Amino acid sequence: GNSVTQMEGPVTLSEEAFLTINCxxxxxxxxxxxxxxxxxxxxxxxLLKATKADDKGSNKGFEATYRKETTSFHLExxxxxxxxxxxxxxxxxxQNFGNEKLTFGTGTRLTIIP
Amino acid sequence: xxxxxxxxxxxILKIGQSMTLQCTxxxxxxxxxxxxxxxxxxxxxxxxxxxxxxxDKGEVPNGYNVSRSTTEDFPLRLELAAPSQxxxxxxxxxxxxxxxxxxxxxxxxxxxxx
Lengths: 114, 114
What we know:
The complex is a heterodimer.
Chain A: E1 3-6, E2 11-14, E3 19-21, E4 23-26, E5 33-38, E6 44-50, E7 56-59, E8 62-65, E9 75-77, E10 86-93, E11 102-104, E12 108-113
Parallel strand pairs in A: 2-12
Antiparallel strand pairs in A: 1-4, 3-9, 5-6, 5-10, 7-8, 8-9, 10-11, 10-12
Chain B: E1 4-7, E2 10-13, E3 19-25, E4 31-37, E5 43-51, E6 54-57, E7 64-66, E8 76-78, E9 87-94, E10 104-105, E11 109-113
Parallel strand pairs in B: 2-11
Antiparallel strand pairs in B: 1-3, 3-8, 4-5, 4-9, 5-6, 7-8, 9-10, 9-11
């Protein structure tokens, strides 16, 4: 079946550092890929998405590129802020079910120190 | 705009008790979902619905039931609560369109079974 493997956390960085959170996937067909973010005490919210190979999703300074050749969708940000502290989830849609369902990774907790 | 509203936010149950987690959305989304989030395990799909009157099992449906009598509401019923059902539960909804299916999540319901 489909699966998503994320970089183990937690990750702790200083403010203004460069961020990479790795995500690789296994899927049949051509899934859409997502990064969701969960701030403390809240539900998940969409951060960015990409629907086909070589697409780059971007939002709030975060970027991720859909790499079909390496089955990866790594999340990057050039200069993190304290407000970026959250849990980040990589996810993909299950093409076998016509895009109705998401498969999530285990999440990566990010803490930014001032 | 309320989005997806879940109640209660917190609940403690004794083994064998029953309860219903409520979920309501005001965005006229046709798809609704229930996920559970366990530490270090990501999110697992319990049940989902593609429209009023239609429900289907996800990855981990045992011990739960759902109904979808209206577009807005998607309650999750726990019968005979067990300690293994201690988790954070998230309801989500989406509007089925072509392309990527983006979910809107509620803030979550933390359930403890003792």
